[in-house]
Design a protein that fits this description.
Layout lengths: L1 H62 L1
Keywords: Membrane, Transmembrane, Transmembrane helix
Length: 64
């Protein structure tokens, strides 16, 4: 009886350890996806701002 309880306790211990590992892996993947989406939007916003500045400068320079 004692051996059976020990085996169940040990298997639960490893299950929770594996579950923690799985949650950490999911968190890392979710973090990478979120960061890629944010940097993608940021990169698009920066490129759009630079293009608008260049077009504004060209418009201003041609009208002078």
């Amino acid at each position: 009886m004692f051996v059976c309880r020990t085996e169940i306790h040990v298997s639960c211990k490893y299950f929770y350890k594996d579950m923690n590992y799985i949650l950490i892996c999911v968190a890392i993947v979710a973090g990478i996806v979120i960061i890629k989406k944010i940097t993608g939007c940021l990169l698009r916003a920066v490129i759009s701002a630079v293009l608008l500045l260049v077009l504004g400068y060209l418009y201003y320079a041609s009208c002078r």
